[in-house]
Amino acid sequence: MVKKEMIAMLLAGGQGSRLGVLTSKVAKPAVAFGGKYRIIDFPLSNCINSGVDTVGVLTQYQPLRLNTHIGIGIPWDLDRNIGGVSVLPPYEKSTNSEWYTGTANAIYQNLEYIESYNPDYVLILSGDHIYKMDYEVMLDFHKSKGAEVTIAVMPVPMEEASRFGIMIADENKRINDFEEKPAHPRSNLASMGIYIFNWKTLKEALIANRDLENLDFGKHVIPYCKDKGAPLYAYEFIGYWKDVGTLNSYWEANMELIDIVPEFNLYEEYWKIYTKSEIQPPQYFSQDSVVERCIIGEGSEIYGQVYNSVIGCNVCIGPGVVVRDSIIMNETVIGEGSEIYKAIVAENVTIGKNVKLGVGDERDNDTAPHIYNHGLVTIGEKSVIPDHVSVGKNTVIYGIAEPSDFPDAYLPSGRTLIKAGE
């Protein structure tokens, strides 16, 4: 039997419903980020940079693009004969087949996979955060404290603490108590959803609680370990960490990449972010193009003006186009004379000529104001926007739109245009 000291289980099954139409056909960890990357590249790169060479990726919701992206793990040097990366979807068992119903249930259904490596420690990660972290340093902390469970925490401003699971720890960093989204927080150490368990402790907790509905780490497994008297410790992480779970935080995290001195540097030599990249021609900038403070992916052709934006690969921005403060994902085409302001445009979108996105006053979105806000225009993948139309703020378009969908060639602020069948 192969013995691994620590293996990672990466939870990548989430739908990411707060990303709206960006995740209607694709799992959140597979959403494009920072030009040529996808969100899942960050935890996978952290694993290989931290010397963790065995990773189980638990997929569920719309896994196709994620599976294709990960493949056999070559970009992350995770194509190993022993270990490497394994994609673990829910599967049919002889007695019953069931979906993963909670974060911990997903791990419970893969106990055999973990057992096959007989690890000392299991690292639990989620597939939807942007950060760089050396898990080996966290493991050293875990061992030095004699912990059975270590939870990575991050100090957050006290006024924001009620949005998180909060750990209350003593000066030795031992956790005495924790509260899920407390109204009156007693500490500002927020759980990052990154855990190291002794394998024995984790296995016992999962088996003991296996019949609970929606078995979850924060709600069930960690309280169980604490009640059993297992030593729990908080590992404090100082650095950049961003949950890109809402459209606005996703937009902000992309915009932070193009600051003059970015808080999060994608290009550090000693901590590379790896991704699956097709072999692409270089970017092409025409004589008349203007590009300021942008990331532009390979294979893109720029004929217009692009300011303060993140542009994916194989994007074509036509003559006379102006793009500002926007995210344009791979394979999108923007027709000549169009103006794009503060938009998130998904992959394979076709925007016609003389289209204006992000005009007029802000109004609350009429169908999902909790998703479509902050003045953003969101366009779902493979959408088509006809020539000569204008679109307001806090709007969403998904599907192949016709001129008749735009009375007076205008979609007012706050409107939702989702075509049937999308």
Describe how the helices and strands are arranged.
Blueprint: E1 6-11, E2 32-33, E3 37-38, H1 41-49, E4 54-58, H2 64-70, E5 84-88, H3 103-108, H4 111-115, E6 121-126, E7 129-131, H5 135-145, E8 149-155, E9 165-169, E10 175-180, E11 189-198, H6 199-208, H7 217-227, E12 232-236, E13 241-243, H8 247-256, E14 284-285, E15 290-292, E16 295-296, E17 301-302, E18 305-307, E19 310-311, E20 316-317, E21 322-324, E22 327-328, E23 333-334, E24 339-341, E25 343-345, E26 350-351, E27 356-359, E28 377-379, E29 384-385, E30 390-392, E31 395-398, E32 410-411, E33 416-418
Parallel strand pairs: 1-4, 1-6, 4-5, 8-12, 14-17, 15-18, 16-19, 17-20, 18-21, 19-22, 20-23, 21-24, 22-25, 23-26, 24-27, 25-28, 26-29, 27-30, 28-31, 30-32, 31-33
Antiparallel strand pairs: 2-3, 6-11, 7-13, 8-11, 9-10, 9-11
